[in-house]
Design brief:
- The protein is mainly α and 73 residues long.
- 55% of the residues lie in helices and 0% in strands.
- The longest helix has 15 residues.
- The radius of gyration is 12 Å and the shape is globular.
- The relative contact order is 0.23.
Length: 73
C-alpha cells in the first residue's frame, strides 16, 4: 500500500484494528503504520476522528503503548 506525502503525514492507521482485531493484531498494525509513516519525519499516528463505542479499550491502550515504545524519532 502506498501513501502520498500528505496522507502519510496525517494518518495511516487502520481504525478497524482497534475495534475488531485482537490486542496482538492491534500492536502489529500500529508497528506497521509506524514503519511506513515515520521515515522522513512529520508523522502523526491517529485512530481516526474519534474513539467510538465499538473500540475495544484494551486495543486502544495497546495502540498508545506501542506508539510510546516505537514511535520516537
Amino acid at each position: 500500500m502506498e501513501f502520498n506525502q500528505k496522507e502519510k503525514d496525517i494518518n495511516n492507521f487502520i481504525s478497524s484494528a482497534i475495534s475488531s482485531k485482537t490486542e496482538k493484531e492491534t500492536v502489529e498494525e500500529t508497528k506497521r503504520c509506524l514503519d511506513i509513516g515515520m521515515p522522513g519525519g512529520g508523522y502523526i499516528l491517529s485512530s481516526s476522528n474519534s474513539i467510538h463505542s465499538a473500540v475495544k479499550p484494551q486495543n486502544y491502550l495497546a495502540m498508545l503503548d506501542t506508539l510510546k515504545k516505537f514511535g520516537k524519532y
